[in-house]
Amino acid sequence: MTTTPDAPAIAARGLHKSYGGKHSGKDGGKGPKKVLDGIDLAVPRGTIFSLLGPNGAGKTTVVKILSTLVTADAGDLRVGGHDLAADPQAVRAMIGVTGQFSAVDGLITGEENMLLMADLHHLPRREGRRTAAELLERFDLVEAAKKPASTYSGGMRRRLDIAMTLVGAPRIIFLDEPTTGLDPRSRHSMWGIIRELVSGGVTVFLTTQYLEEADELADRIAVLNDGRIAAEGSADELKRLVPGGHVRLRFTDPAAYRSAAVALREVTRDDEALSLQIPSDGSQRELRSILDWLDSAGVEADELTVHTPDLDDVFFALTGGTDQREDVR
Ligand SMILES: Nc1ncnc2c1ncn2[C@@H]1O[C@H](COP(=O)(O)OP(=O)(O)OP(=O)(O)O)[C@@H](O)[C@H]1O
Ligand SMILES: [Mg+2]
């Protein structure tokens, strides 16, 4: 199968997956549990895509299906231009996966874990040693390399895990919660590593519990809820979906504050802080109309700040259990 240059690195259409059902008895006779109920995704090459969703939403299931570890019930699925159902072997050759739960073997050293991966990728001995050494260096594990991995801290184990994923120089990488449990410094250094990979043309599919991480890294974000994609877009597009954006005007002169409060309709007053809050999408047009109002009332604010909803607001709005499905594509 040939790959067209502009084909997405990862594409899914109508992805369905249920667990249980076939093996009666195991699920207490309740029938299959629908986890993915028709998911569509497209991840352009060389970009970072982040899948968000509450615990149990099916993020790991999506990762496992797209990385050939679990088979889908239905769906047209392509990874690296290859059909997952027809050619899983070709897909496997292009991808790397770091699971939510570590693949690190604690009984052997970090270096031995790396060399084992090099063997699995059939790298010649010398090349395997060189790749392992380079990656151990890059992930700041040289000192720990000769110690059993069971003695590593959580952050070291995570780094080793990702280093192991990179041994085969994959072009598409699935990272299932790569920074869970890392301290802020380790998280930032992991972000640096992910950005570096992407600048080298690698495509990254990332799940995370940290909305800030998706906001920071991802070109596109999808929110998975109730078996479906509740919303998909850039971080900015998603933030525009939820209410909560506003402009805040702060005054030091109580008289100016009162005039402004009278002049502007639909404001929330904070008489103690002498500040007014006006619902706004933060657009230039809305800001101008607020400024025009103030001008015509002859008052001047001491401070004007624009507040936009963050991804936490988006997450709560979209995964709150109500059937709010929107699409911003
Ligand atoms: N092998 C399995 N057999 C039966 N049910 C499963 C299996 N794997 C996952 N599930 C169920 O599928 C649903 C989705 O699980 P999944 O691990 O994909 O969620 P997740 O979004 O990754 O959650 P988390 O944020 O906790 O990692 C859950 O209800 C889970 O119990
Ligand atoms: Mg998971």
What would you note in describing this structure?
- This protein is α/β, with parallel strands linked by helices and 329 residues long.
- 35% of the residues lie in helices and 24% in strands.
- It is built from 11 helices and 14 strands.
- Strands 6-7-8-3-9-10 form a 6-stranded mixed sheet, with helices on both faces.
- Helix 6 links the parallel strand 7 (172-176) and strand 8.
- Helix 3 crosses helix 4 and helix 3 (110-120) packs parallel to helix 5.
- The longest helix has 16 residues, at 184-199.
- The two termini are 29 Å apart.
- The relative contact order is 0.13.
Which terms would index this structure?
single chain; 329 residues; 14 strands; 35% helix; binds magnesium ion
Classification by helices and strands: alpha/beta
Order of helices and strands: EEEHEEHEHHHEHEHEEHEHEEHEH
What's the arrangement of strands in the largest beta sheet? 6-7-8-3-9-10
Assess the beta-strand content as a share of residues.
15-25%
The Cα radius of gyration reads 25 Å
Largest sheet: 6 strands, mixed
Number of helices: 11
Estimate the mean pLDDT confidence: 88
**What percent of the residues sit in helical stretches (DSSP H or I)?**
25-40%
Distinct small-molecule ligands in the complex: adenosine-5'-triphosphate, magnesium ion
Strand segment count: 14
N- to C-terminal separation? 29 Å
Low-pLDDT residue intervals, each spanning 5 or more residues: 322-329
Morphology call: elongated
